[in-house]
Amino acid sequence: MADIRSDVTKAATEITRVAQDAAYVAIGLGVIGVQKAQVRRRELRSQFERPLEDVRKAVEAPIADFRKEFAKAVKEFDKTFGQFIERFDATIEPMSERLPAGAQQVVQQAKEARDQLRDYLVTQLAA
Fold first, then answer.
1. pTM of this prediction?
2. Which residues span the domain enclosing 7?
3. pLDDT tens string 12-39
4. Are residues 78 and 122 in contact, defined by beta-carbon separation less than 8 angstroms?
């Protein structure tokens, strides 16, 4: 009877060891699977990031050039418009001096509003 108990104990011990080894193997395979998935994710990410970076660079250069040229055009327009305003004010000034005081105030307010609008537009367009 002692032999049977000994054999059963040995068998149970062996089954426990085999089950434990199987669990370790399963855990190890799971870890390897996760690592492979991470490596593949990184590969895919870099595979997509490179073309996207190239596209971004290809798009940013013309946009930067356009912004630069647009800022130049805005400055040139502002310069030309400034000259127009000076001529216009020089033409209107003698007439506005003959207007009544209330009308002169309206003309002055219109000039101030015009200058504020001009400054706002130039600031917004040049940004």
1. 0.49
2. 2-126
3. 889 999 989 899 999 999 999 999 999 9
4. yes
